[in-house]
Sequence to fold (761 residues):
Amino acid sequence: MKRFKYGDERISERDIMVAIPSIVIGVGILSLPRDLAALTIGSDGWIPLLVVGLMIIFVCWAIAKFASGFPNQTFLTYASKIVTKPVAIVLTCLFAIVSIFITSFQIRKISNIAQQYLFDRTPIEVIALTFLLVVVYAVAGSRVGLFRINLLFMPIILFIACTVIVFNIGWFDFGNLLPVFQTPVKDYPKIFTSGSAAYLGVGILWFYLSLVDEPKKAPKAAALGMCIPVGLYILIFIMCIAVFGTEVTSNLLYPTVELAKVVEIPGGFFERFESVFFVIWIMAIFITATMAMDIGVFALNSIFKNTMKIKLIFICAPFIYLIAMFPKDVTELDLFGTILSNSIIILNLSVLILLPVVAKIRGVKRNE
Amino acid sequence: MNKKYLFLLCCFCFFLTGCWDEMNIEERGFVVGVAFDLAEEQSGDSPMITMTNQFVVPAGFGTPSEGGNSSEKPYSNLSVTGQSLFEMTREMATIQGNAPYYEHLQSIVVAEELAQEPHMFENVMDLLIRDPEMRRETRVVVSAKKAKDILEIEPTLEPLPAMHINTVNDNIDRAGGLIQPLRIGELNEYMLEEYNYLIPIVRAFEDRIIFNGAGIFDGKSNQLVDTISGLEIFGVNLITGKLKGGFINFKAKDEKMVYEIKQAKSNIKIEADQTDHITIDIEIDTEGNIAETFGGRSLLDENYMEVVNKHLREEIKHQVTDILKKGQEEIGMDFFGFSKIMREKHYKTWEKIKGDWEDGKNIFQNATINVTVENTIRTVGTTNRTKDLKRSE
Fold:
């Protein structure tokens, strides 16, 4: 079979800027307001969102800055130089595993939500399988093609998110936002961890930067890209609290979906806005899942250089499916999500600290 | 090679099994209204509920060019009795032949009788809030008599009784003595936060629906505790600032006048430094015009207008203090939303005193409430006088 190939497998820093929000905005925000509202009083949840968001923006910038010091080298190549090959392989494997888990998590979560709101009788297994097949198809193609999909989908996703926010202004009750700053300070560490759950996927920078034409411009682009989800999350959270109140938000399973359900376009001719919202949001989850899987395959491919990409995909896919089907119910799935997001943060932060420090000690030069 | 493709092609057939959730629109029973009554025959420990669903019958509508088919009603009501709502909706599917579909549900009518039972109302509402098919904008009203009767009236303008409730509501800004039916989303909030709330009461009268007063619900047990009249709702609306418009009859120097309120604002300040005694200041600011007079004095006379305004202020203040007094002394419940303001503005104090707000120390009942009223009479209509007093004397 012949496959279409783009002229070069290179991307620009603008692609990186769009890739970041593409992978970050996924299923997380659909339930995020509930987790935050359950732990905070009034509208205080925006504080952890902003603080964690700023931290993540910095992490983004730092990862991109470090990785841009090794232009045209894969993570495995420059990590091997710094911390010897075996350690580099272990790290790459960890990234691959985490990415595959992210894919599984996204697929399972969207299947759950889709079954609850859209397909009442279709088994979850079937929804997940169909979704996975489309993801596999996308990953099997050109990597640069994925970035073009991001570029194409991102404006649509942002547009629909803004529509949900704008059309809810009619229900905005300022009183619901009060009281402010009443959450006890000792609760914040716990709130921060739950706030960080929605910022998965910054790890892509370790890998995709090797494809960027002008890595020098990448750190700024990555940080800018990260600002989009941070801003969007805060807006959606505030909107949920203002429309539903803290108590209701903390009891709704998917407050963001309910927010879309509340939308009533004046005139009464269009009631079910959430159906449009779902269509678009499934696109958002689709690109998140595809990018995560692609990173997994990319990482594995850098270890097994002689294996064909398509083979790796076919090996990964069944695992993704099995992992996705593993949690029994919503509670287990949430637990899975929490463990996953924590391990991602630990992995990224430790690599971010480990590599520069060791590079400094062993005197590995950047910018060769 | 060709065989391979043929094999693949055959494999694809397995993906053509169709859609699990395939559902023809004719098979859906669109429900626009639901009514809940206590069943006439009670048996067993837990009370039996009668649920009436109003299904749309599309054939009854007709197209505008056909002029409608008058022989057939555009709706059909179906009642089922049982204990759990879910069980009843499933039972309905077997009777009606098509499953009830609640995505387009417009209004929920609950019988007063049922709402007076402790915890019954919240149990009934649970499914309506929980089910993913339900929307959060569905309106809830209480029916003074049988809830089923509301769904059985035959309104002249609107084909569906359940929709008629909403059309009547659209005119709320013309009469101040009405409150908006509660959105189920709001109800969810009140039930969780344990705020008291008001739900309008409707009555079926021949082929009309009459909104008459409101039921006061206790936020803790979610049962109807007391009712207030339309005039009293007007006072409550003035306090909460939810008044969209309305009118007020008053007398200025023996001349009856009607003041039409175009806009009303309220500003509530709560002094909560002393936890055992709080002071609530309510400032009401209205804007409107003189709509009707039964006298002949010149309304352009500034001195006279001062007097008119003074009487008007007193009348509004009188109505507001009346309902406040009723709430504090007679009913002993805060349905003016003061507890919400306490929670929002004085969170720390509220956490301490919320148990003593209406019970225990009765902080709300003993609170001092000050009311100040401001009116701006913008215009007196197109003419100053329609008759001359001096000449008629």
